[in-house]
Amino acid sequence: MSKKALFYHKESEFIRCDLCFHGCRIKKAEKGICGVRENRGGVLISLNYAKLVATARDPIEKKPLYHFYPATYAYSIAAAGCGLKCKFCQNWTISQVQGREKELLSLPEVQPQEVVEAALNYNCASIAYTYTEPTVFIEYVLDTAFLAKEYHILNVFISNGFMQKEVVKELANCIDAFNIDLKSFSDRFYSKICGAEEGSLLKILDNLAAIKEKDIWLEITTLFIPSLNDSPREMRQIAKFIAQLDKNIPWHISAFYPSYKLLNLPPTSSEVLKVAYDIGKEEGLRFIYIGNIVTKLGSNTYCPFCHNLLVEREGFWVVKNLLEGRGNCPYCGLKIAGRF
Hints:
Elements: E1 3-4, E2 8-11, E3 14-17, E4 25-26, E5 37-40, E6 43-46, E7 52-59, E8 73-79, H1 92-95, H2 101-104, H3 112-121, E9 126-129, H4 138-150, E10 154-159, H5 165-171, E11 177-181, H6 187-194, H7 200-213, E12 217-224, H8 232-245, E13 251-255, H9 270-282, E14 288-291, E15 301-302, E16 309-314, E17 317-321
Parallel strand pairs: 8-9, 9-10, 10-11, 11-12, 12-13, 13-14
Antiparallel strand pairs: 1-6, 2-3, 3-4, 5-6, 7-8, 15-16, 16-17
């Protein structure tokens, strides 16, 4: 079904979408950059409402969220679309709508109640809005998330952070945890590689600060791409920013693999991620995790005070969890940041 969208206002014969930083001015019968919000007779319509392109029962660690109820499951859902055009997108077949509208926007409808029932049936502690950019199906997220809360199901939002402040404020009423991609510390990277508006980096940083101020659990992910955002200088800029927000914020550093429009670049080496890991530790970050690559470094959770192993992982699977039901280190008593 199509549904009247939130976050827009009229400007003469145009509609101004207030969802993300693009602020698209949309003529009648045309769509915004995301491809899923259309001006129909002066009303902005969400074209992807209830049309799920992906569902799965995932370990929460896959989101990745390592300090949010480890070893539980999230019922993961996605509708098509994204406000960005990242040249390295691994899920571009469902995030990039243009030219694929018939395939992605003509799917059977899955109503919020059905999502909640699936989460219950699969014994999932949370529902994850993920895979594409959940901001562009915000109406469905809100309807589902508020309903989920009635059933004591948690909600997690996996996002690029490319959203207006009013959207963050609304999400704060129903989202229990965020993982935000901080893709670079360069505005040029965001504009050239991701198709973002000039000045987007500072706005994304502001959103990260706003989420933190609202005391919603936050983890941050950076995908390091050879020659584009993997310099030690940029690694340090990101690590320093996160540390200034809160040294307890988990930082997930991930390896790039050639995909979509960046098939010409090599995969990220484990040595590069080790440099980022060491820089993060130098800046005082207490929890750094390496993902998307086979390595023993950076997959487990250790107490930052006594350094004992608290959560042991193999890939996305938890094989030992000493924080379950407590949240304090059983060896020294230190309260570990997170939700346990």
